[in-house]
């Protein structure tokens, strides 16, 4: 986990004029910098701040890299990182949310991820079913509403998608997916 810290300039690094002119200025600057750091740490997605695991990187909700091998999760389609989803006037970064979910699951399992390859896609990524802590990643993404079943190539996750629809998890993503699929 990364640790953010702030370092203020030592008095010897400041000019004499600024020290005597306004003794509050360094304190105000320090407070503003601390507030900016706190805002960064609460608004920047988890996946953008930290490495997932020593040999694992998450590219987006349906693509990961393990030991330099690019892996495409088979049977699902997650939104791209830049993709947003809307419901009424509410806009969400659904692509970032899907990626962050996978990042968190890998962290929670201390990097315990296993993938079984089943061919390659047109971008030479390994098509695979992956499990984190024994649970199917693709199925979990679909079931929790972060991805849709990619029935064009694999019908394996359609039952999870139906359960998620009944739970109301697809209100934001499905309308976007229909436009971009």
Automatic annotation (TrEMBL):
The Swiss-Prot or TrEMBL record annotates one GO molecular function as:
hydrolase activity
Alphabetically ordered keywords of this record:
Endonuclease, Hydrolase, Nuclease
The cross-references to Pfam families, in alphabetical order and at most eight, read: SNase
What SMART domains does UniProt report for this protein, alphabetically? SNc (SM00318)
SUPFAM superfamilies, sorted: Staphylococcal nuclease
* Annotated ranges, domain TNase-like: 57-175
Write the protein's name: Succinoglycan biosynthesis protein ExoI
